[in-house]
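Priority: low. Protein: HECT-type E3 ubiquitin transferase. Input follows.
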Amino acid sequence: MQFITVRQFSSGDKTLPPMTKSRWWIPTATKLLALINAANNEYSPPLLHYTELYNSALDHIDLMQDYYVWQNCRHPGQFAYCQYPFILSILAKRFILTKDSEQQMILNARKSLVAKMTRHQMPQIDIFFLNINVRRSWLVHDSLNEITCKQKDLKKKLKVSFVGEPGLDMGGLTKEWFLLLVREIFDSNYGMFVYHSHSKSYWFSVDNKEGNLREYNLIGVLMGLAVYNSNILDLHFPSVCYRKLLTPPVVPNANIARIGIIDTPSLDDLNEIMPDVTRGLKELLDYDGNVEEDMGMNFQISLEEFGEMKTFELKPNGAEIPVTNENRTEYVSAYLDWILNTAIYEQFKAFYLGFHSVCASNALIMLRGEEVEMLVCGSQKLDLSQLRKVTEYDGFDPTEEFIESFWEVVQNLSSELQKKFLLFATGSDRLPIGGIAEMSFKITRLPHRMDNLPEAHTCFNQLVLPRYENKKILQEKLITAISNAEGFGLE
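Result:
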């Protein structure tokens, strides 16, 4: 990788031959790395973490030009780094995906404008956006209806408004809509996703009696809109979910094509969801005694969902087929396939199609499942001392005692309250991929209102503070504000 960096950025190095005589160097070196990457992926787990093959120096090339070369069918033999996405960092891929999304937004807005002008109609500013207007008390219902009615607008810039509430969405209302909608639809009352405490993750309910396929599609659309509009969601899916989301990375044309199927699901995949069950299956495979007599198992699976134990057959007449030493491997394979594929196929298909209805792009092909997860969820690593380094002040001196006290209070908050603080001030308790260094943050003084709670303008990552009399009052007011942030003090 260092060789590629030196050759790529060696325009002033007289010790190297001119590029005209060594154009083959970079393609050859990259293809060699591709062989190493392919071999590495054959191991489980891989010998190298995928990020070790990133070449961050390539973040500084003209990435969009490289992307266009890759997309240009008229020059199929021309080299582009995008042909070998394993070498591009997540920051480079995010840049390409963001720019590609922006261009699609412009294209769709232009089409709407042309359509209006063709019909001799006066265009309104709303035609350039995906406008979501919802009632808080009917959040999921209204969101479903809005998205269903505005399918053709999904690739426009998102704007959200809440019925009966003033305010122009400069980003803050969109963040709040994402937050509240995810929180509500993952609630157990909807019966769509089951929380697994051992892995602290959610998985699709295997018993879709409620027929919530529209809601599963909505979650997929929501994830797609988050990536498309560069927002971060507080989702707790296992990594295998994102790998399924890229299987295949492009929506197949034929309706008969299987979507989101893991061909050979493994115990490692299940371990991301149900580590306790995985241990039991490993013990079954390693058991030295008589499996049939000692364990008394059949080709059935029993799962608890929402306080109710449910039993399903893994194959026809599974209740009558005992698990033996001879067929236990078949039983484990059937168990894995049922949990990860068969039982959730329709639910996941709706989810998959929702995501790709927004994010369908050749740029998506370059991503790994783990990278999609990072784009959707951001980073959970909080270091608020780094936030202080990027903070700007309006009405305060960064070295004054009040500001020193403020940061002491923030640093001494529990990790849960620190997440709430970040949520209150920015609209998200997650950080973008590049971390706090990529954020802007501003603390503004609120004069003459000493009794007010802190306020936040989440669309601008701005915290508004009165100059409280002492550190104790500051702490009390801040904790009160961040603990009751939803729908209060957020703009």
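Residues 487-491 have pLDDT under 50 and may be disordered. Residues 90-118 form the longest helix (29 residues).
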